[in-house]
Write a structure and sequence with these properties.
The chain has three domains: 82 residues; 50 residues; 145 residues, Heat Shock Protein 90 (2-Layer Sandwich). Helices cover 60% and strands 14% of the residues. The protein contains ten helices and seven strands.
Length: 333
């Protein structure tokens, strides 16, 4: 309907001109005393030819219109698919479109190149900054008796965590993210994450409950390690007293769930739907100095790429439970 209205409007001058000519012809034939049959026949013939011409032209324009609509929704848009211009005005419009399209491609390629260079720079910076961090850690450990530099070591640990988060973020944005899905021993990943945060468990006097597991899941060990560390980090960060429980629950013969539950401050109900949004910290995050709103965002992106499920249950003041679902690896092969 929109096409019909637009087509009539674009040809309204020709339609009015034809009707004017028909009116003049009708008047002259009547004044000359021509029989009414001849007058009506002449008018009908003129209208018929007008409808025939506009119908044929309209069909052609409709086909071109449909072609343009298909190109709009095409994934790989190219000006080469456009039909040849029918007049000089269309030719100039197509030239203009070609210039704009080439400029768009140039800007897109420039932006992609800039992003690539920035990712490479961040990756290089992270690798370089790890060396002085490791050296500083050794210096602090050798500076005095055990426990004397504990606060400094904790702050250095946080710096190291943020640096690793930057590297993971840069890798996720890369076009060649190194995901390698293979059988992974879940127990090794969990224990490695727990050892990494052992200092924080001791400092905050939080007890850990974990009985171990022999299950093997399909995942990427390095990225799964990052996911468990982020969830464990949040559990420790928002738990001032009590315990953290890590358990593994099997469902059927194909699926298994890793459950990390804490007795921390919990999450407000209105914040739960948005906790995986980039930069979103929620009410408790605003109250906590170290909240960035990036950890769970990265966790959610990684688990989607790995094909894992993620569920978060929480009540403010009672604690939070995070459940990650895996597909079990076929260990018989």
């Amino acid at each position: 309907m929109n096409f019909f209205i637009s087509y009539v409007k674009s040809n309204i001058k020709w339609i009015l001109s034809f009707l004017l000519c028909e009116g003049i012809l009708f008047t002259l034939m009547v004044m000359n005393g021509n029989p009414w049959e001849e007058v009506c026949y002449a008018v009908f013939l003129g209208v018929f030819l007008l409808v025939l011409v506009f119908f044929a032209d309209g069909i052609g324009r409709w086909k071109r219109y449909r072609k343009l609509l298909e190109m709009e929704y095409s994934v790989a848009f190219s000006l080469e698919r456009m039909e040849n211009p029918q007049d000089i005005l269309e030719q100039e419009y197509q030239k203009l479109l070609s210039i704009l399209f080439e400029e768009k491609l140039r800007q897109e390629n420039g932006a992609l190149e800039m992003q690539r260079e920035m990712r490479e720079y961040y990756a290089m910076w992270v690798h370089q900054i790890k060396t002085p961090i490791s050296a500083l850690k050794l210096l602090l450990q050798e500076k005095g008796p055990v426990g004397e530099m504990e606060e400094e070591l904790r702050e250095l640990f946080f710096i190291e965590q943020y640096v690793e988060m930057v590297l993971s973020y840069a890798r996720l944005e890369s076009e060649t993210t190194d995901f390698v899905v293979a059988p992974v021993k879940l127990d090794e990943v969990i224990r490695s994450s727990v050892r990494k945060y052992a200092r924080m468990f001791v400092h905050k006097k939080i007890s850990l409950e974990y009985e171990g597991t022999s299950e093997v899941v399909l995942s990427d060990k390095k990225w799964l390690q990052f996911v468990t560390e982020q969830i464990l980090s949040n559990a420790i960060k928002y738990t001032s007293k009590g315990k953290i429980n890590i358990s593994v629950k099997k469902e059927g013969t194909k699926h298994i769930f890793l459950v990390i539950a804490d007795t921390g401050i919990g999450i407000r109900e209105e914040d739960l739907p948005r906790i995986c949004e980039k930069g979103y910290t929620g009410y408790n995050g605003h109250a906590h100095r170290r909240s960035t709103g990036i950890g769970l965002y990265l966790v959610n992106r990684i688990r989607k790429k790995l094909g894992h499920s993620l569920s978060v249950y929480s009540r403010e003041g009672e604690g939070t439970k995070v459940v990650i679902g895996f597909v079990l690896a076929d260990t018989e092969e």
